[in-house]
Each structure stands twice: as structure tokens, then as C-alpha cells.
Amino acid sequence: MAAIIPNFVFYILAFLIPLIISGVGMPLLKRLMLKKGKYGIDVHKKEKPKVAEMGGIMILLSIVLTTIILIFLVDTNLEKMVLGAFALTLLVAGVIGIIDDFYRLSGILKPVLLLIASAPIIIMGLIQSGVFVPNPQLPLIGETNLTIVYWILLPFVITVTSNAANMLDVFNGSLATTSMIVLFFTFFTNMIIKGDLQTFDITYVLILMMIGTLVIFWTYNKYPAKVFAGDTGSLTVGAALGAIAILGRLEVVVIIAMIPFIMNGFGIISSVRGLFERSEMARPTRMTKDWKIASTGNSKAPITLVGLIVQDGPLNEKDVVKAFNILTIVSGIFALLIAVLIRITLGGIS
Predict the structure, then answer these.
(1) Against a cut of 0.85, is the pTM above it?
(2) Which residues in 260-282 are b (16+ Cβ under 10 Å) and which e?
(3) Residue 34 pLDDT > 90, yes or no?
(4) Can you name the residues that pair with 248 across neighbouring β-strands?
(5) How many CA within 13 A on the CB side of residue 182?
(6) Angle 147-168/174-194 helices, nearest 10 degrees?
(7) Cβ neighbours of residue 280 under 8 Å, at least 6 residues apart?
(8) Which region holds residue 135: left if phi is over 0, alpha if psi is between -120 and 50, else beta?
(9) Angle, vertex CA 108, rays to CA 270 and CA 44, nearest 5
(10) CA–CA separation, 241 and 264 (whole Å)
(11) Domain ranges in the chain?
(12) Would you say 166 and 278 are in contact if contact means Cβ atoms under 8 Å apart?
């Protein structure tokens, strides 16, 4: 056991501490943002309400503070390093998000800067063996040996997951619910591949921390939203999903669980043939007279997941988010099946 308290108590704390910090801090942040005039207009509502921006600051703060507390409750350098690498990765991504929320980075500069977010994981990996293992586990193949290639690809994992989350954060609750679904299935795929909860595993801690803070964020971001994540939040959450994949040796299953995120991002980038900010692209959807979301039919607009969902007819915002959630659940089920195949391949299930 790598914690100075029982496993289940540690896991409960990993969930409750960010939950409490976010629960106390989110309403304060909301009032501060509205007071300072940092708000966005919810264009999908007839009333065009003003919604507090940059709620992701509280997601980031709760994870950093929780990590500092938990570092004192683990008794091995490896777990301390993993927690530190995770928090610092999110901190770098979150700071890039804060800069983007204030100054609007270009569609190319933002992903380039996000390559830096992987630096804490790389540095910690050089200092402490075992922080991450450059040997992804694949179904029917087992453990691969991609040491050099893995080090090269590692920075792009954080960039891809961060931008994918950013591109899917377009409706009330969409980022929070889809991310929690991915985390939920990641928790159980980790259990399938590595075994039960009896042996302490820091991967569960990372997952539970994110779920804890996202539960509170969801209560403020769900329809009708009172707080937007901003790029601060979406880049932080996306970086967390990528970091969990790397630090938990769950690269394949996390990618599978994030298929809707990746499909949406790939569709946008491939259709516009480059990296652009939303304001630089034609809108793929429009609001109907009865305030439902419909496709614009504009051939110059990017191909998006929501554009595909409303092809058969307009939907209200709640139904679009529900469709996102269903697709993510389906992807999560596939991730579970892949986890079973990996476990069988590794000889864990007879």
C-alpha cells in the first residue's frame, strides 16, 4: 500500500476534497466574474443571458490544492511524482487557457503551446522511473515496446485531448457530462486491466479528483448554464484526460472512450483543412424560430458532431447534449470490451 491511510479512505478523500473546494469556490468565482464583466452571451437562448466565464479556474484550483494535500498522504516518491506531474500538467494547460480567454490565441499557436503541457510528465519521468511506462498495452498484442516513438508522441497526446475537449465544449453541460462519462468508464477499464481496488493505484485517485470537481462544475454549467468553463476549463479537463491515459497506462482505452471528442475534432480540422478559432470559421448550426439547433447547410462550415446529429432535423439544446452523452456511453462500452481483451491478452483472465 502506498498511502499512510486505508485505500478506501484515500479514494474518498480524493473525491471529496475537490468537491468541497469547488462547491465553496464556484459561487464566489461566478459572482466575481460577473462583477468584473467577464461573461459570455449564451447564444443558444432566446433571452441571450449573460453567463459568468472562466469557471475552469475553479476546476484547476481545486485539483492543484487537492494534489498538494494528497502528496502529504502518500508515502512513496513514485506516487508523489505522479500527483505532481498530473497537477503541473493541468496547471500549464490551464494557464494557456487563461491566456486564451483573455487574449484569444490563434488556432495554430494554442495547440503548439499545449505541447509544453506534457513537460511536467516528461521531466518527472526522467527523474523518477515508473511515472509513466512507454509500453502501451494493446488487445491481442499485449505490451508493446515503443520507447523512442512513445517519447516523441507523448506531447501530442495532451495537445490532442485538450483541443478535442475544447472543441466539444459548445453547449450547456456538454463538457462536464461527456468528460465524467469518459472518466467513469476509465475507472472501470483500469479495474479490469489491473485488478480490483485492494491494491493502491494512484490512477483511481486522479480519476476521482476530476470527477469530484466536475460534479460541482456540472451543477453550474448544466442547462441553463450559470457558468461557462472557458478555454481555461476545457483545456484543463482535456489535459487531465490525456494525463490520466499516460500516467495510468490507459492510452488505448481512453482514446476509445473519447471517440466522440476525437471525431468532432478531426471532422473540424479535416473539413476546414487547418487549425482555426471558432470565430474564424463559418457556423455549422443556426437557431430556428422556435429556438432549436439546426444545420446551416453551409458548405464552407466545418463538419462537427452536432452538425451530423441535427442533419435529420432541428433539436433543442438538451437533446443535442443527450446525443453527445449517448455516443460517449457507447464509446465507453467499447472501451470496456477493449479492456477485457487487453486483460485476456496479458493473461489476467482465463
Answers:
(1) yes
(2) bbbbbbebbbebbeebeeeeebe
(3) yes
(4) none
(5) 32
(6) 150
(7) 107
(8) beta
(9) 70
(10) 16
(11) 7-345
(12) no
Would you say the C-alpha torsion 297, 298, 299, 300 has a positive or negative sign? negative
Q: Judge whether residue 250 has pLDDT over 80.
A: yes
What burial class does residue 205 get, using C-beta atoms within 10 Å of its C-beta: 0-12 exposed, 13-18 middle, 19+ buried? buried
How far apart are the C-alpha atoms of 256 and 245, rounded to whole Å?
Answer: 11
The DSSP symbol for 286 reads E
How many Cα neighbours within 13 Å face the side chain of 81? 16
CA distances for 1 relative to 76, 82, 192, 193, angstroms: 9, 15, 19, 19
- pLDDT tens for residues 307-350? 899 988 999 999 999 999 999 999 999 999 999 999 999 886 54
Tell me how far CA of residue 96 lies from CA of 68, 101, 202, 230, in angstroms: 21, 9, 26, 11
- For 91-96, the CB contacts below 8 A with 24+ separation are 91/60, 91/64, 92/116, 92/117, 92/119, 92/120, 92/239, 93/117, 93/158, 93/162, 93/235, 93/236, 93/238, 93/239, 94/56, 94/57, 94/59, 94/60, 94/232, 94/235, 94/236, 94/239, 96/231, 96/235
67: its cell numbers = 494534489
Question: Can you tell me the distance from the alpha carbon of 29 to that of 305, in angstroms, rounded to the nearest whole number?
Answer: 31
| Cβ neighbours around 53 below 10 Å, total | 24
| Nearest by Cα to 3 from 13, 315, 264, 240 | 13
Residue with cell 462544475: 217
Do you find a cis peptide bond into 224, omega within 30 degrees of 0?
yes
User: What is the C-alpha to C-alpha distance for residues 322 and 75, in angstroms, rounded to an integer?
Assistant: 42
Residues 6+ apart with CB under 8 A from 233: 54, 55, 56, 57, 59, 60, 97, 169, 175, 217
